Amino acid sequence: MTTPGRFRSSGSDAAHEPVLVREVVSVLRPHAGGLYVDATVGLGGHAAALLGAGAGRLIGMDRDEAALAVARERLAGAGERVTLLHADYRELPGVLASCGVATADGILADLGVSSLQLDDPARGFSFRQAGPLDMRMDRSQGETLAERLASVDEATLAGVISRYGEERHARRVARAILVSRDDGELRDTGDLARAARRGAGGGQWRRLDPATRTFQALRIWVNGELDGLDLFLEAATGALALGGRLAVIAFHSLEDRVVKHTFRRLAGPDGVCSLVTKRAVRPDDDEVSRNPRARSARLRVLERAA
Length: 306
Prior knowledge:
Blueprint: H1 21-28, E1 35-38, H2 45-52, E2 57-62, H3 65-74, E3 82-86, H4 92-98, E4 104-110, H5 115-119, H6 145-151, H7 154-165, H8 170-182, H9 189-200, H10 212-223, H11 229-238, E5 240-250, H12 253-266, E6 273-275, H13 285-290, E7 298-304
Parallel strand pairs: 1-2, 1-4, 2-3, 4-5
Antiparallel strand pairs: 5-7, 6-7
């Protein structure tokens, strides 16, 4: 068995750099006697760093089976110190119970989309390459984006784009998408991106592709990303040992707002937790230059105090 301080990631996907990895290791303080949970293990980058820094045991969860396959290869060197399970992070209490675990010393949830998902056109997450209208993080269940768009009405779709994408032209974007659908011209993500740009009035742009907010909104909608997030945070803090910490990385204002307000409530006068980070920790310029996808990451940390 690999000794805690000597663990090395072994997979070919080690080049996929996890965001804020040094900060996560610093705040979770892995040690040989500790048990840690990566509730969104993805490609295993954060998990590898925690194991390499001395975590005694790690339970990793993810609802994307393709990502789990990469994580299994990457973390193979840790042997029995690692348990990887196909599960949604909101299933945390049941997962811990099935593993015979009462409390954890640290829990991590990275709420972002993985490089594997973004870079594979077949997953349908990216507007830069044409792919199927899917967008499911867990391809074993749930409706695809195509199935949802097939029957949605304009008011509902506009509400989704406005709420989850904070798109000020949501009504026009929804109308453009449904016109393309009804004309038989909504075949893949390339068609969807063109419709979103038309609706948003995007011809030339300098920084943000006009399709960005719409794709974010539809991804959140398909995967129910905000559904039960506050309940997960409460359950995760309840699963922490005394002095244990919950670290959450958010990538857009909607989920970060849920994390911030839930953490403040749990750390309030009647709460059992304390805030480790008074403000969100952001990646430094060096990290953003190495990994531009890290630029919107925000890390917040809570500690079980009673």
